[in-house]
Amino acid sequence: MSSLFDRLLRLGPVPDRSPQRRPVVPLSEMVGGAWIENTAGRCLRADARFALDYAHGDLCLRAATEVGATLLKAAGMGEVSTSSLLFLDTETTGLGRDAGTFAFLIGLGSFDGTIFEVRQYFAEEPDDEPAMLRELEGELGQRATLVTFNGVGFDWPLLENRFRYHGLQPPELEGHLDLLRWSRALWRHVLPSCALSSLERQVLGVARTGEDVPGYLIPQLYYDYLRTGNVQPLVGVFYHNLMDVMSMACLMARVSSQMGLEPEPSETPCDLLAIGRLHERLGNHAEARAAYTAATRSPDLRIAAEGWDRYGLLLKRLGRNDEAAMVWSERLEGPSPVPFIELAKHLEHRERDHAAARDVVLRGLARLERGEIDHPWPDDLWNDLNYRLDRLERRLGRSASSAT
Which of 101, 136, 211, 227 is the most buried (most CB within 10 A)? Predict the structure, then answer.
C-alpha cells in the first residue's frame, strides 16, 4: 500500500492560492498574444489565423464564404458579403445584464481574402474594459454586420450597456444575424438541445479537446484569476471562445445550405417543415415550396403528410386554387384530415359541385371511423365533417326541389 506521501507526490505540487502569487509564465505568452494600448487604456490581444481549407468538424471554413449568402438573403440582409461580417462571442462575469456583469473576453472573427482570422481581446483587470470596448468599436467601424449565437438576447445588449456605463456611445450596427433563431427553426424538434455545444456535436461534427472548459465555469475562473493571478485555467477559456467563434462561421454555412432552394442532405435531419414555415413568413415562397416538397419525401409518413398539407395550403394562399385542389385530390389516402376539408371547401365554394364535395366528406368520415386519419381531437373532426355534410345535403335538397 502506498503511503500518503507517495500519493501526494503523484498528485504533483499543491498550487499556492495566495492572492499575491503571480504567474511564472505570462498569459500573453501562453495564448500567443500581446498587450496593446489605446486612448482608454490597455488590453491583451491574441490572434489566430486559419486557411479557408481548414476543417472545423465536418466543414471547411470556406463553406461559409460559398453558401452564407443564402442565409443572409433569407434574413433580409440583402447582398451582404461574408467579408463584411464580424462574428462575435463574449465571455462574461455572469449571465445577467446588470451593472456588475461585464465581458472580460471578446472574440471576433472575420474573413479576409483566403484567411479566417480570430482576434481575442482580454481585460486583465476590470479597469481594462474601456480599452477593450474601444478596440471593438474600431472593429465595428470596418465591419458593422454582426453574426452571433444568442447575441440579440445577450451579447450585444450587454455590450451596449457596458459602452454606456463607461460614457461611450454604442456603435451602430448595419445588421445582426443571430444564428440561434435559425438553428431553432431547423433543429428544435429533432435535437434534444439547440445549445451551441449540442449543435457542434450533432450538426457540425466538432469534437473539442480536453483543453476546453465548460461555459458555466468561465465566470468563476475569471474571478479566481483576479484573486490568485493563476493564468493556467484562462488558456482553456481562450480556447473555448476561439471554438465558439469558429463554430459560428461553420454553423452559418450549415444553416445556409439547409435554407436554400435545395436543402442539403445531412446525417442530422433538420425540420424541413419549420424551414418552410419560416420562409413563408418571410415571403420567400419559392424556398418555402422547396422545403415543403423536400418534407414530402420524408420516410416518416406524418412529416410527409404535413409537407403535402403545407404545400397545398401555400398554393391556396398564393391564389393557385386549381393546383392546390390537385394536391388535395391526390392525398385522400393519407393520414391527414386536411385534404378532405380543403378539397370539400374547394368543390363547394369554388366549383359549386355540391355532390362531389359531399362525396369527399363522406369518404373522410368513413376513413375517420376506421381510424385511418390522425387527429388530436377526432370527435371535433367528426363533428366538423358532419356539420359540413349536413349543409351540403341541405343544399343538394334545395337544388333537387328547385329542379322539380
Answer: 136
